Amino acid sequence: MAVDKKYDTPMLDELEKGEWPSFVKEIKAAAEWNAMSNDLLGLLEQSYSEKMGHWKHGGIVGVMGYGGGIIGRYTDLPEKYPNISHFHTLRINMPSGWFYTSEALRTLCDIWDAHGSGLTNMHGSTGDIIFLGTRTEELEPVFNKLTAAGFDLGGSGSDVRTPSCCCGKARCEWACYDTMALTHFITNKFQDELHRPAFPYKMKFKMSGCPNDCVASVARSDISIIGTWRDEIQVDMQKVREYAKNGTDIVKEIVMMCPGKCIEWDGKDLNIDNSSCLHCMHCINVMPKALAPGKDRGAVVLVGSKAPIVEGALLSSVMIPFMKIEEPFDEMEFWKLIENMWDLWCEEGKNRERIGEFIQRVGMGNFLDSVGLEPIAEMVAHPRENPYVFYEEYFEEGEEVEK
Amino acid sequence: MLQRKTDIGPPHYSKFLPPIIKENYGKWKYHEIPRPGVLMHVADNGAKLYSVRAGSPRLLSTFKIRKYAELADKYCDGYLRFTSRHNVEFLLTKEENINPLIADLNALGHPVGGTGNSITSIVHTQGWIHCHSAATDASGIVKAVMDDNIEYFKTMVLPGKLRIALACCLNMCGAVHCSDIAILGIHRRPPKINKVNLPKMCEIPNVVASCPTAAIRPVVYDGKPSVEILEDKCMFCANCFTVCPALPLADPLNDGVSIWIGGKVSNARHEPMFSKLAIPFIPNNPPRWPEVTGAIRKIVELWAKNAHKHERMGEWIERIGWPKFFRMSGIEFQKEHIDDFKYAGLTYKRSAHLTY
Q1: How far is the alpha carbon of B286 from chain A, nearest alpha carbon, in Å?
Q2: Closest of B315, B313, B301 to residue B260, by C-alpha
């Protein structure tokens, strides 16, 4: 692609200075040979001087057979910046844990250099590889090359979005289940739901291997699967003493900061009352050589988190306090719950109503009834504080009342 | 549609794992951070994996990705990964390759760091580069803030982890609502109603239902269906614009950012927390947003000086109380700080537990 026009970009040039890697340098590197990136520079400079964006609202584009994965985008200044009159984004499903080989990255670069702006995001917030900026007529050719190379599109719209996970067992001693394997499994199990939006609104899965939640699943996914354990924290007492000797103030840094107040340190031994342990990870985080999660591992499943629009931001809340996650994944009872939840939400959910908002609207108790879960105390921070209870059971006159 | 491949999903991750990870998958014993930006994971059998983490602008040209690939070939048999905060990580087995790799990364303009008690990369969004609803830019502010806090990326001298996130509008894509410091693009004027296009482009019931404060009502205008917006009920969230292109509300004079603090997602010590409003409005001031970087630097330094070891921003403020935070930071407490949406009463102070 020939580049025939350079723009003066005095404001953006300022952002080439400083020590943090500059996105302006990235755009300029692509603009050297790519007319789309060159026009993007011009448009962005104009946005900086006017303090507003120049992209038009939406635009529905895609590839045949799919209803999601591509975000259509058009500038509102197509005469001035003709090369970005179309500037669509492709979301490409990343491998679990964002591991790559140099060869795979080069393959992706070759495809994108041939058909797009030469700009990417590594990665989008949900986890996808973002190919940033191409024309509608390039979408099918890019898609064909991607699938030939073994890559598929990710999600967008009212569908299952691309599931993502922390690096889990690949590189972390705290992983309580195989996040990468489960993520790959879920992504494949729900390919249809991912590629062909059929829900009231979006639906995200995120898998974290332990309560440190390194993919922020509790805040950024409708279904948050967070690794944990049920038995005792594994303690290497000799190593604990080494930490103490090497300057870790165990009383101040661990005992006093334990939210369950279940740890004691007498200068020689660390005693943990595991029945009061909240599995917060703090003591393990501070002394990774000495402490480790227990051996009876699984995950807690939380549901419903979302950003503010419309009814306010939500964090996911506990639905299943502990679930074993072991191969074969397809035999897990969990899928029945997912199916029940989706059946209910698809039937009763309003247009653009996230499942967290849906649960708030119908009431958690009713939701549990409908999806076949028993109410348990682990699901609430505390019981209700108001007396506005919908009692569904009552006695009829003359009925035998149990004493 | 002939010979079309669909529904193949992502490539299996096992194709991309270095041999040391395949051999020790699920068998890691512990890890150390020998120096900022370098992790050492030790397996049960003693095998050692080194990860070198470098900052990245997230928006990458294919030119830069190819450079990463070259470095991966040169030092780590072609294996690398990206983190959930958009850093790039090179996966090495040869300790002697760490320093040359770091030198090459620095020469490429990519600082090494972001581990332990540091400020790592800012989770951010598209801004004026690609989004139609942005009230501010993303990449520009992120660059300005990280330039200003670069020493905290390259060292581990802070009391705890400090996560910064940016979203260019109230949709809050990313992690803004649960970060230690969050930068959020906001509007301050109601949408302009394009009466000509609205009936053609928008489904009016959707528009009405999109408003959190019920400020939108259907009306008939010139014999055509339209909407009216009760301006005193509109708080400029732009969700109606999301569902209806005929309701634009970008306004260079009044768009800007707000600063939120005290959120976290991990369960360590304290349960996850939402970020809370610290500064209601700062005007957009490209290219370097000095008022934003200045405010963030002040908050970071105040926390760094006063928090206990391991204490995140939200935990620190919870311990000292918000009034004390406002006194210490010099940030003026205003009407806008007080919640007035739905369950606002739960956020009022309902006790005599006060500091003076």
Answers
A1: 6
A2: B313
Half-sphere exposure of B189 (CA within 13 A, CB side): 14
Instruction: Provide the pLDDT for residue B3.
Output: 78
**Helix or strand (DSSP H, E) at A71:** strand A70-71
- Check CB contact under 8 Å for B129 and A308: no
Q: DSSP labels for A381-398?
A: SS--SS--------PPTT
> Going by DSSP bridges, is the β-strand pair A164-165/A205-208 parallel, antiparallel, or unpaired?
parallel
Q: Which of residues 310-339 of B touch A (CB under 8 A)?
A: 310
Taking Cα atoms as reference points, which of A180, A291, A282 lies closest to residue B29? A291
| CA gap B222, B339 in Å, rounded | 39
Residues of chain A found within 8 Å of residue B9, distances taken between Cβ atoms: 93, 152, 184, 187-188, 191
Give me B228's structure tokens.
């009216």
Q: How many residues belong to chain B?
A: 356
pLDDT at residue B2, as a whole number: 64
Measured between CA atoms, the residue of chain B closest to residue A134 is: B130
Contact B60 A105 (CB under 8 A): no
Smallest CA–CA separation between B243 and chain A, in Å? 9
What are the pLDDT digits (tens) for B38-66? 999 999 999 999 999 999 999 999 999 99
Which segments in chain B show pLDDT lower than 50? none
Q: Domains of chain A, with CATH numbers?
A: 10-148 (3.30.70.2500), 164-229+296-392 (3.30.413.10), 234-292 (3.30.70.20)
Token reading at A36: 């789309």
- Residue B40 contacts A, CB cutoff 8 Å: no
Query: β-strands B48-54, B38-43: how paired?
Result: antiparallel
How confident is the model at residue A6, as a pLDDT? 84
Q: What is the spatial distance between Cα A242 and Cα A360, in angstroms, rounded to a whole number?
A: 49
Residues 6+ apart with CB under 8 A from A370: A340, A344, A362
H helices of A289-378, in order, are: 334-348, 355-362, 364-371
Q: Do B9 and A184 lie within an 8 Å CB cutoff?
A: yes
pTM value is 0.97
Task: State how beta strands A223-229 and A205-208 pair.
Answer: parallel
Residue contact B30–A289, C-beta within 8 A: yes
Query: What local confidence, expressed as pLDDT, does residue B30 receive?
Result: 97
What's CA B247's distance to the chain center, in Å? Answer: 27
| DSSP secondary structure of A123-184 | --TTS-EEEE---GGGHHHHHHHHHHTT--B---SSSBPPPEE--GGGT-TT-SS-HHHHHH
Residues 221-250 of B with CB under 8 A from A: 237, 239, 241-243, 245, 248, 250
pLDDT beneath 50: ranges in chain A: none
Report how far residue B66's alpha carbon sits from residue B208's, in angstroms, rounded to the nearest whole number: 48
Please classify residue B114 by burial: count the beta carbons closer than 10 Å to its beta carbon, then call 0-12 exposed, 13-18 middle and 19+ buried. Answer: buried
Please give, rounded to a whole number of angstroms, the shortest distance from the CA of B332 to a CA of chain A.
25
Name the helix (H) or strand (E) containing B224.
strand B224-229
Contacts of B82 in chain A (CB under 8 A): 98, 100, 122-123
